[in-house]
Structures are given as C-alpha cells and as structure tokens.
Amino acid sequence: MKRVVIVLGLCALLGGCGRRELEDRRFPTVLTAETGNIKAQEEERQAQDSKYIDYGHVKAVILSRETAENGQMLREILSYLENNPVFARNILIYVGDEETLEAAKKKEEDTGIYLEDLAKNQPGDGALELPLKDLLNYLHNGEASIKLPALYTENGKILPGGSIELRQEAASASNVPIPRKTGFKE
Fold it and tell me: What is the per-residue DSSP string for 128-183?
C-alpha cells in the first residue's frame, strides 16, 4: 500500500501541470529588439497580451539597425540574452530595418522558424547565420571583427541582404563593440 501511495504521489508531482496551460501561452519564434532595454520591451509586450508569452521557442533575434550600431545598447541586449536561460546559445542574430522588424512582429510565431530554415538550407559558407554564442565569443574574447547578417523586406517577405561588420578597437578593456557598416541593403 505504501508503494502505491508513493507512486501516485510521484505521478501527481511529475504530472507537468503548471500555472499556465498550453492554450494560455503564446510561443514566438522571433524576438525583435529596438532598444537596449530588451527586458522592458518584453514586459510591455506581455502587458498588452492576454496570453503568457513563452520565449522558450525563440529561434532568432532581429536587432534594429540603430541598436546594432550602438555598442552600449548591443552590449545590454547581449548581456540580457546571455544571462537569461530561456534563450539558447544557438539562436540566430540578425539586423533589420524598420519594415523588417514590423514584418517579423506580425508573424512572430513563424518568422524564427523561417529564418532558421533559410540559414540551414542556403548554399555557401553560412553567411546567413550568426548564432548568439559566436557574437558572445566576439564580445568577450576581444575578437577583431564579426559580421552581423542583415535582413530586408520586399513585397512583405523577409529576405537576407548584406551585413554589418562590427569591429572592436584596440581598447579591449571596455569590450564595447564599435560597429562598422558594410553592405547593408537600403
């Protein structure tokens, strides 16, 4: 009898019922970052949504061009992503113009999967993908430069288009990336 009670108790504890049921959650696959304070953006989005936003399925982050070009804002975003365990180190990082950010927000439950598939299935040297872990490595290890893939929107479709090159100057003690633009499609 004791064994039966213990087994039933364990089943109840491990049943998986949480505070929020699946139908009460929303699972975006892309996160857009227009300012350095990404946590405030998340809180604002949550306050405006009737469902709980679960970021555990995020496949890609699209930074605004201004954010990517501002070393301090970029550092704040990377720090937040690095210190928040819900974000995997293999999520892809992109930069996009305003139109691209708006398009991604409208289809945030599909865009991340699309970008992940696009990066995986394109021929070449992987120029379309920059995982978070590589960008963090660049930041923390003082690498000279790294290319951040850029996206643009044409006829409502998000497409790859060029990159922004980030370079760290000799003052690696500050460890703040200095962006240098190359090939960003206007």
Answer: T--BHHHHHHHHHHT-SEEEEEEEEEETTEEEEEEEEEEE--S-TTT---EEEEES
Please check whether residue 93 is in contact with residue 148, taking contact to mean a CB–CB distance below 8 angstroms.
yes
Task: Kindly report the pTM of this predicted structure.
Answer: 0.78
Domain count, the chain: 1
Whole-angstrom distance, CA of residue 17 vs CA of residue 164 = 44
Cross-strand bridge partners of residue 154:
157
Is residue 7, in this structure, part of any structural domain at all?
no
- pLDDT, tens digit only, all 186 positions of the chain: 777 777 766 666 565 555 778 888 889 999 999 887 888 888 888 898 888 989 999 999 999 989 988 888 988 999 999 999 999 999 999 999 999 999 999 999 999 999 999 888 876 665 578 999 999 998 888 788 889 999 999 999 999 988 998 887 644 444 555 554 445 554
Three-state secondary structure call for residue 50: coil
d(CA 113, CA 104): 11
| 68 within a domain of the structure (yes/no) | yes
Structural domain that includes position 165: 20-182
